[in-house]
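pinging the channel bc i need a second pair of eyes. not urgent but kinda urgent?? the chain im working w is below, pasted from the shared doc
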Amino acid sequence: MLVRGVPADLKAAVIADAEARASGMNDVIVGVLAARYSVKFEASDRKMTATPGLSADLVLRMPDSLRRAIAVDAAKRGSTQRAIVVATLSRHYGMAEPTLTRRRRQGRRSRAVPAT
């Protein structure tokens, strides 16, 4: 799952947590999400081998069951999966939760037909 636009302070908190646990960022994030949704998750043995980049984007490897649980929650709330992930992590790290964004309606936009 690609999570774009993660706030810098939230990413810094995840990095600090991963370093304190001598674990990888993915395991820390997915562990938090799995606990929230009561989904089994077995952490990998991957460690953080380098300082994470400055990108505000995260690529998360997670079980399909967790991905589905997040998708269902997002649909129920009329929000995006990204917003659910960021809100869950913000809550976990004691940060202000961002307002959940509404999912855009999919489909065609009506276009005015020019007069002839």
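so The domain at 2-42+56-92 is CATH 1.10.1220 (Arc Repressor Mutant). and The mean pLDDT is 85. — does that match what u expected or am i reading it wrong
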